[in-house]
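We modelled the chain as a single entity of 268 amino acids. Its sequence is:
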Amino acid sequence: MSYIVVDGPQAPPSSVDALSELFRAGIEASTLPLTMPLLMLQAPDADGHQVLVIPGFLASDRSTAVLRRFIDRLGYQALPWELGRNNGGQAQHERLISNFEQLVARSNRPVTIVGQSLGGVYARELARLQPEAVRMVVTLGSPFGSFHSNHSHPFLTRIFKRLAGVTPEQAREQRLTVDPKIAPPVPCTAIYSKSDGVVPWQTCIEYVERHNENVEVLSSHIGMGFHPHVLHVIADRLGQDKSNWKPFDRDTLGRRVIFPKPSARSPN
């Protein structure tokens, strides 16, 4: 798969995209009942492995309920994170790591981790800590490419500092041992939207190497957890085998019409 290489400064989302987030998410949710039969028909056979789903900043397991029900219907075991509302705090992050260690100890095979927004940043760090226990990571509009306050909506930056007690830059220094732009050593799929109204889409994409990829969708930020096109990609990815992983093929089943040619981060 070829990519459009992206380089240069990252600007915050446009005001139009930010202000229309809720409206667009509502439209995206309304299309799901009509598209669900087709999504199920096109999904590959499931092997029943566990899938941990981590919500985004300020969100709880309620925000991922639709996504988890879809994953369950496919034939996998969707798991909530069970830590309440994601407040971005250090103590909560440490509890997530501890809970994941317990999950790994109970599981007899690798787990897939799906994370939305900040949840995807956490998902990549869990995979970095225990790569042998992670089948793959799928991120939905996750700004792992930058934690700079100027790249996010100012309101969210203020809320993050109030709840977490630190700025995004300080949180990065506390928790991340390596550059978060470097993918963990497991297959990674970064789903992003250029009309994201919460975080700059350029911060949500990989520098593509052998086992990671970017998939662009036409979606709001909030609606990624129940957008039919996003669910289609997730179903396709869950059917991949870790030892024989292949990137998402946008040249089949009319995908070229639905999915734009993806971008990739410049290696420099």
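As a brief sanity check on the tokenised model: The first strand starts at residue 4 and ends at 6. The chain has a mean pLDDT of 89.
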